[in-house]
Every structure is written in C-alpha cells, then in structure tokens.
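Q: Here's a chain of 70 amino acids. Please give me its 3D structure as tokens.
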Amino acid sequence: MSADLRQLAAQQQAGRVAATARPEVVAELLVGACLHRAFLVRFAGEAVTPDHIGSFAADLVSALEPALAP
C-alpha cells in the first residue's frame, strides 16, 4: 500500500474523510491529475515554480474536498 493511500485510509478511519470514499480511487485521481498537469506544463514549455505547484495542489484539493467531506 502506498504512502498516499495509507494517509487517506487513516484520515477516513479518523472520521475526516467520508466513509463512502474509496481511498484507492481518490489516490489515483490525485496522482493522475498531478501527472497530467506535469505533462501539460512541460509540453507547453512553461516554467514550473513553487507557487505554480502550490496553487495547482490547492485548487485540486478544493475541487475534491466536497466529495470527501464526512
């Protein structure tokens, strides 16, 4: 079990993630979205900055948060 999957499962057991959420699917959505974004940024030749990465991560989590709320 990967670290991200263990973390999501632990948050679910602690009641901070919806009991109906499937940690393995959520982990795949997060990793897949990050890989896709990295590909698009590199493909377009854009510069990657810590601010760029931070804002993308925050937007991604904000989009998933309603589905994960207990």
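Q: Can you summarize the key feature?
A: Helices lie at 3-13, 23-44, 50-68.
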